[in-house]
Design goal:
The chain is an alpha/beta fold and 323 residues long. The chain is 35% helix and 21% strand. The protein has one domain: Aldolase class I (TIM Barrel), CATH 3.20.20. Strands 1-2-5-6-9-10-11-12 form an eight-stranded parallel β-barrel, surrounded by eight helices. Helix 5 links the parallel strand 5 and strand 6. The longest helix is centred in the first third of the chain and has 14 residues. 46% of the residues are buried.
Length: 323
């Protein structure tokens, strides 16, 4: 990477943008959001649930160009719920590393709809290199369709209308637990108000640059997935930020394209989107990564290797191991 391409920069600065268009944008990091903690195979048969399925699905995406994977390990006793013990997380991470020797492993602390905060933290004892850190309460209202008998661990439909509370104190606790283990937080930014939380974590010395900041666009109670909202949010990032963008459902493709065009990095995968195009379900996580790679190349950007992504994020160049 050139010096210009590798340094952090203000994504909302038009002069910095034009300089990089002329001199070379950094390689785009493709983060695979492999499966999520809410929807399962009842929504798309390609969505991986078991640790074995995760390794297979992520492996295909890794071969296609993903340099990071964000996973929700599932409870093997109830596959529509998330894992709550380090042992289950370790099994998932070990299988991923065997299949994907260089990929950056990113475990969720978002978990599922039913966890308490200590259960959400269980993934940190499985030695991920990155872990997601929600910066706002997670309020949702939706209906989950039933999981029929054709799937393992069926369940009836669920009407959900609730909020996962995240306070400044709780978020700081999560960040402190990550720092103690040498895990980089992925700062999940749902709306501009999350900027206050980022600066609170900075003031306490709980996060260090480069800050890995994700804008979550189009999720319930997050910012609308529009160009104006994206541009306004990235202008508020602290100096030393590296920007990742996700779009939910039909907004995944436009947000992927926009972030690639603006010099940011992208998150794609079955956690956020189960359709490839209107009326056609995604066949695999690899299919979504392949499209993100094509978009990057059409916009004259390289796709980051795991080693390049590690360099940009200040991570160890030696992948985590699970013996």
């Amino acid at each position: 990477m050139s010096e210009t391409a590798s340094e952090t920069w203000n994504y909302g600065d038009p002069y910095a943008y034009m300089e990089r268009v002329s001199g070379g944008m950094p390689p785009v990091i493709i983060c695979l959001a492999s499966n999520g903690g809410i929807q399962g195979k009842e929504y798309n048969d390609a969505l991986p649930e078991t640790a074995e399925e995760l390794a297979e699905s992520v492996g295909e995406a890794y071969d296609a160009g993903a340099s990071m994977v964000h996973i929700h390990a599932r409870n093997p006793e109830t596959l529509w719920k998330g894992a709550t013990t380090p042992e289950v997380w370790l099994d998932a991470n070990r299988r991923l590393r065997e299949r994907c020797p260089e990929i950056i492993i990113n475990n969720t602390t978002g978990g599922d709809l039913w966890m308490n905060h200590e259960q959400r933290l269980s993934c940190l004892d499985a030695n991920p290199e990155v872990a997601s850190l929600n910066l706002a309460p997670d309020m949702g209202k939706f209906k989950l369709k039933p999981r029929s008998d054709e799937y393992t661990h069926p369940r009836p439909a669920i009407d959900y209308d609730d909020c996962m509370p995240f306070s400044y104190k709780q978020i700081a606790h999560f960040a402190a637990e990550m720092k103690a283990r040498g895990i980089k937080p992925e700062l999940e930014t749902y709306h501009p108000g999350c900027g206050w939380v980022i600066r609170d974590l900075m003031a306490q010395g709980l996060i260090e640059p480069p800050y890995w900041v994700q804008t979550v666009m189009g999720y319930q109670t997050s910012s609308w997935p529009t160009v104006d909202n994206v541009v306004n949010m990235v202008r508020e990032f602290p100096e030393g930020s590296v920007w990742l963008c996700s779009g939910i459902g039909p907004h995944q493709l436009p947000m992927t394209t926009l972030a690639t065009l603006m010099g940011g990095h992208v998150r794609v995968g079955l956690e956020d989107n189960i359709y490839y195009r209107r009326g056609e379900k995604v066949r695999s996580n690899g299919q979504l990564v392949e499209r993100a790679v094509r978009i990057a190349h059409e916009l004259n950007r390289e796709v980051a290797t795991p080693a390049q992504a590690r360099e940009m994020l200040g991570l160890s160049l030696t992948p985590s191991q699970y013996s």
